[in-house]
Structures are given as C-alpha cells and as structure tokens.
Amino acid sequence: MQTPRKKMRSARSLDPAMELAIVEVAPGGDGVAIVERAGERRAVFVRGAAQGDRIEAKVDFRSRPAHGQLERVLSPGADRVDPACPHAQRCGGCNWMHLTTNAQTRIHLEQLRAALPEAWRETDVRAVPAVTRELGYRTRARVHVRASGGRAIVGMHAPSSHDPVEVDACRVLHPSLERARLGLGALFERAHGTGEVELALGHPAASERPHVLAVRWSSVLPPEVYARFERALSPAGLAGASIVCGEATRPAIIGDPTPWMRGPDGSPLRLAVGGFAQASEEGNHKLAQRVAELASEAMAAATDRTNVVELYAGAGNFTVLLARIPHAQTVAVESNADACRAAQENLSARSLAAKVVLADASSYALPKSLQLLVLDPPRTGARAVAERLRAQPARFVLYVSCDLATLGRDLAILAPVYRPRAIEAFELFPQTSHLETVVLLERHRS
Question: I want to staple 384 with a disulfide (CB 3.0 to 4.6 A). Which of 44, 232, 342, 362 is the partner?
C-alpha cells in the first residue's frame, strides 16, 4: 500500500485509544493495521509502528486510509529496536529508526519486488548495504527554518506537518553538517518568515571539511542576517552561502557556496549550488561504481565507438565513470545550466571526453542506434522517456531510481520490450524508508 501523507487532525477528531496489531509496513514507512469499523474492514496507518507490534493508538477514521497516532507499544514485534535518537518519534527525518537493520532491508526488498511488473517478480533481487555507518553518514541534508518574534526554529519537518522540529542533536548528520545545523538558529535571529536550507560539504582537499549553505527564504531577510553570514565565513566552518529571497531570480552570494564531494573516482567533484547529489559520499561511491560496472557489461559487445546517452546527468557524477568505458561516445543531458557547467568542469579536470548537453531529458532526441541509455530521474520518474523507448528502444537501459512507485510505473511501460538483467536495492539511507534502486534492462523485442 502507498501511504498518503496527510496532516493528523486535531485531538478532538481522534477516537479514544484502541489496540491495534501491525501486520505490515507500507511504502512510505508507516505500520499498517486492519480493523473492523461500522461493518467494513479499514486500514490504519501508524507512523513509528513495526510489523508484529501490538500498540495502543488514537485513530482518525475520517480519512481513507485512516491514520493513527501511536500512544504506546503494548508488545513489541521482532523488528523493533529502541531508536538511537530520542527525537525519532516527533522528528520526521528518520522514520525507520525504530526498525532493525535486517528489517529495513527485508521490507525494502519486499516493497521493491511488489513494485516490479508481475512477470518479473521472481527475478533475483540483490540488496546492497551501501554505507558502513548507520549514524553520522549524511553529507548532504535539507532543514527547514521558521523565524518570528526575534527567534528562529531549525529542524526537519514534524511527521505529516510543515512545522520544523527543534532538536539538540541530529544523529545521522556528518559532524561538519551537524555543527552547521546547530549554528543556523543564531544566523536567522530577528528574521521573519520561513525557508529551507540545503547543507552540503565544501572542497574535500581541506584538512577539516568546511560546509556551504543554499538558502531559499519566503520573504526579505534583514541586512543584519547577511552581515552574520559574512562574519561566519571561515576556512574550517562556513565556506559560502547562496541566498534567494521571495520572488528574487538571482541569489545573493556570500563567500564561495560551491558544494563539493569526493567523486566516485576518488577525485573532487564540483556540484551545482543547491543542486542534487546523493545523501552520503560513501553510498554514492558504491552506487556510481556499480552503475559503471553494469554499463561496462552492457557495452562489452560493442566493437566500434558506440553511443551512450545519460539523461538527468546532473554535475557528471556518473558521467566521469561512463566516459572511461572503452568504445563509448558518451552524451550527458541535463536541464540545469549550473549543473552542466559543473559537469563540463569535472570532465575537463579529468581530461575526459564526453559531450554535455543542456536540454530537457524528457524531450531530448535519442540517437536511432543507441547501445546504452542511462537515466537517473527525480522522484517523478521518467514516464515520457519510457514511452518513447517503447517505440525506439535502446539495446540496454540502465535505470537508477529513488522512488518505487514511479519506478514501477515506468518499468510496466518498458516490460513488453525489455527484460531485466539486474535488479539491485541500494541501502543509501539507513534509518529511513527511502531506497535507491538500480535496474539494468536488455531489449528482447523490437
């Protein structure tokens, strides 16, 4: 079941606490109980519940499915552990911190298999533990800020809410980002409004990694806030910030806000300011290396220089590996101009030959004879691309996805023309219900 994310109604709309037995965990992360109510079977979704739990919860039956508010665990299931963070239940950042590592992997594999086209569900699916640390692993994060009355509250959104939750420590952030998060409240003092801040690391050559900030604010920030950002600049602290306020189309730049990561080849990789990158450098390394291995397998039969097209290429995270594949003429397509510039710089720094194209991936004209298409779309997936591949198939498609629902939709479109060569689940986000999936497809019908 897909969990609708609706804000819990006021306490007056909740039924008195009732006992529930949790029978499964739904995509999105909530535990699910089935109850009889007014002569019908109703599903109840409860955040923070584990399969096998018997719990007491207050339930709002006005929504469909119903949503429960966990009051207490009466009898824990085998999947449950005590969360490593005392704020896990009220902070929306780590919705699976109450589950064992094995349970997180098992449920991810079950949900991935259920998302596949029915004919593929017996295909071998491999789980890949992509990070060695389950805490302190995040090298990128987004936090939310609400400022009023001279004070700013900084945190992840509360579950099913847009209100940030203030906590004394975040257990999953890299130490540099945690120091940055703790200092944000003081930077936004006497501001008014709401905003979000992207936290990322600076250049990896520094002995102590600095951090950078990309701020989007709902209204005008007072001059004193900018002055605080200026004063906060330091070699081992804040390297720079990009600030966009209200309807402004260009950011105010303080210092050097360029985010960097250790690329999958071990060299520094420049990223776009405020652009996409994986949540951890270690997880990204394993993911990108595996993408390159599968791409090399797909290219092994090519004897001449053959086309490789990468859609949604970003700053070239995969491109710097794809461009090394023998016999490949790699074209990287990206719609963000700053990401394209970063990709070109990253390729040039490595003396690699690949063409970077600023274009919309969904409408980019694919070559008629295409050996390999690599795509890593956002959560909305790549429906338009999948529909085009039905009519003009590449020999191989390597699809990297961060959303099981849209992955399943797109694979269902491709299933009549392609068969799976590899399906792998990468655990890039411990303590959360998020999953990264890599699928290699081979054309079996023209």
Answer: 362
Burial class (CB in 10 A: 0-12, 13-18, 19+), 379: exposed
pLDDT at 445 (0 to 100): 65
| Among 394, 416, 395, 408, CA closest to 437 | 408
User: Is residue 30 annotated as involved in ligand binding?
Assistant: no
- pLDDT reported for residue 355: 97
Annotated catalytic residue 340: no
Q: What is the DSSP letter of 312?
A: S
Domains and CATH numbers, the chain: 11-80 (2.40.50.140), 105-132+280-443 (3.40.50.150), 140-270 (2.40.50.1070)
36 labeled binding residue: no
Active site residue: 91, 94, 170, 402, which one? 402
pLDDT at 206: 76
Q: What is the C-alpha separation between 103 and 115, in angstroms, rounded?
A: 18
Question: Residue 334 annotated as binding?
Answer: yes
197, containing H or E segment: strand 193-201
CA distances (Å), 152 to each of 189, 342, 393, in order? 6, 33, 52
CA dihedral 243, 246, 248, 249 (to 10 degrees): 80
Q: Which residues of the chain have a pLDDT value below 70?
A: 1-14, 303-305, 445-446
The whole-number pLDDT of residue 369 equals 84
How much is the pTM? 0.93
Strands, E, within 47-99: which ranges? 54-60, 66-75
278 is in an annotated binding site: yes
For position 210, what pLDDT does the model report? 95
